[in-house]
Amino acid sequence: MRGIGQVSRRKLLGAGVGAAAALGIAGCSTNGPDKGGRSGSGKDGNADGGPDGSPTPTQNDGKPIGDGSTSDTGKQPNQPDAPVPLQPGQTPPQFVVFSWDGAGEVGNGLFPRFLELAKNHDARMTFFLSGLYLLPESKKDLYRPPNNRVGASDIGYLTDEHVKATLKYVRQAWLEGHEIGTHFNGHFCGGSGSVAHWTPADWQNEIDQAIGFVTKWKTNSGWSDLDALPFDYAKELVGGRTPCLLGQDNLLPTAKRLGWRYDASSPGGRQMWPVKRKGIWDFPLQAVPFPGHSFEVLSMDYNMLANQSKNTTKGMPSRYPGWREQATEAYVSGFRRAYETNRAPFFIGNHFEQWNGGIYMDAVEEALKQMAGKKDVRLVSFKQFTDWLDVQDPKILAKLRTLEVGQSPAGGWSTFLKTV
Known about the structure:
The protein is α/β, with parallel strands linked by helices.
């Protein structure tokens, strides 16, 4: 069965980003998947072949790992050119990261819809896969969540057919150059079992199980006739987003020990260049202008919903067109503010959900179309953005961090970054 959701259990304390962040609802799901040089979406490959025109890897091309649920097929295809450091006086790229919490396909066609959108606009994205979405409900007792009963999950489990569909699109996503991160497993946001109370050891337990569900899905399902996922998940996994943006402080020591490179769990971030926390790049959801209001809203579909239709995912249909336009403009305004000023990376979070008639899916699609193709814009995954950051001169990054939200570089980029 699918989860009954979180929305009805929460009451908004007020409007805007502050209330949403305080509640931790930014990463909350309702009824289904929660839910210098050129870097970014390069044109060195395509969905049908690698950079040299050779076929993309399949199960038979790689070395099976474990029970054959995953396979080492080598370097991920369809990646951008290797990042290089910014040169003195060079304008930074405008990075935009579209990410998806849960990343399960539940028959609404949203996973393939956005894979197609990405392909059409030379974009790469991050899909934060919930490990439980590869575990059949009949085997739910295999999940032993910290501080919760065996088999518990606040997002429920997918049907067998939807698990198979999720496998199909996760496989396709990786082959097309997208990142597969983690949204962990049971999505516990409230009560004594909330991830907000988990210890570093609890997070290690949860991560071990999430990796296990991805790397042992054939054993758990018995579906030996399906193709393997074409990657070594233990090596590919370098970051995630916690349920409801809770528990990051205790997650970070574990993430650091595991060699993760970033975390995208911070709520209430601002549109500035990122910093590291405990040795991990911190990529928060960001406050962006909310048309018609004096406050700002977090850059995620659920927070648009929380400020439009409050605690319901089925608001008044007559208001859908206005809400769709408002959500679209919020994303575009956030993008424009960074693009025209400090060039801070822009992070947008989403769920494969049809909330309020699917208006948020329409909004993010329209926003992406308006961003794609502009000069210096790079639509990338978190992993690809991390690759770029890691080759930059720390002094350059420190100088970029001096620019406030909406602040343009004094004298223009050629002057501002000429010397550091």
